[in-house]
Amino acid sequence: MIARLKSFFLSAEATTRVAISPVRPVLTAITACLLLLAAVWIIHPFLPPIIWGVTISITLWPLVLRLQKVCFGSRSAAVFFTVLAAVVIFFLPAIFVIVIFARHVDDVSHFIAILPTLQLPAAPAWVGHLPYVGGDIVPFWDHLRENSLPTLLRRVTPSPEKIFHAFLFSAGSLGSLLLEFGLTLVAMVLILGKAEGIICLLETVSSRLGGRTGRSLLKQAEITTRGVALGVTLTAIVESLFGWIGLMVAGVPMGSVVAAVMFISCVLQFGGGWVMFLSTVWLYFTAPLLHAIIMLLFALVTVAGDNFLQPLIIRRYVRISVVIIMLGAFGGLSTLGFAGVFIGPTLLYLTEKMIRDWAGLPSEEDREAVSDE
């Protein structure tokens, strides 16, 4: 009798365990997700500098390892010089842009104030002799010259008072921007100082979540982030410096401001060619023809460099399409700020790769490897 009761309770306990066991992992996962969300909610004021710090740390991690060998194994010295390199590559150009706009705020305000009063000059004589389209361009040009363009500019151009207030607002937020820069550098120091432990943790988590695929995606995230960050930043620096030289040679007024606009446009993936071409048109009507020709040559080289340099740098690390870079940069900018310009393409590329692996479709790297064989 006692043996039967014992077997009955043991069987009931086993049945209860079987019934509870599928629920327990679900509850554990929900609890873990809630804890993660709560942690993100607590640190969300510091997320922008943390994201910046992680992005720049991933980008410059190989530099840390090389500097550590040069500095006789000292991680502190390697991190110090890496932070200096990050300031020069990522932060110094942005600071230059802010200083340039701050120094020329009066000139920009005056130019915008007189912009609605400007009028297109008469169409050049050679425009009317263009085959097929010359007869249509001249009347349209005259219509813009007489009515549409000044009226449109008066409607869309803000008043100097609004520009001044906007600048004061930006200057007021300059302190918070500098604070964010400082927090980013602090995050970099902390991340690079404990990089091996963080890498080990991420590899363990990715292995438990996705096995070999998880580790592969983690490695691709590192490579893609490094390639996109270096490609976008170095291309913007080189292109804006080259454009600044062209602007100075051609004698464009406020050339440093135009170069700063080029840098911002390159970072946002709009390119700097349109700025150079607008400057060429401006010089054509306001300066000797030789200046416009010089500016046009610099503009053509800038466009060619924009289509060559950035893909060349990025494809040293990862085969990512231009469409994904542009969509990721625009979407990341609207959601994560300037750091999203680098994070957005990485997330889109990883999503595309994961879907291709799941569907069994070959990636671009696989197709190129097969073609090389």
Automatic annotation (TrEMBL):
Q: Which residues cross the membrane?
A: 26-44, 50-67, 79-102, 163-192, 282-305, 317-350
Primary location class:
membrane
Q: Does the keyword Transport apply?
A: yes
Q: Topologically, how does it sit relative to the membrane?
A: Multi-pass membrane protein
Q: Give the domain of life.
A: Bacteria
Keyword terms: Cell membrane, Membrane, Transmembrane, Transmembrane helix, Transport
**Pfam families in the record, alphabetically?**
AI-2E_transport
User: Does the record bear Ribosomal protein in its keywords?
Assistant: no
Q: Which PANTHER family match?
A: TRANSMEMBRANE PROTEIN (PTHR21716), TRANSPORT PROTEIN YDIK-RELATED (PTHR21716:SF67)
Q: What is this protein called?
A: AI-2E family transporter
Provenance organism: Bombella dulcis
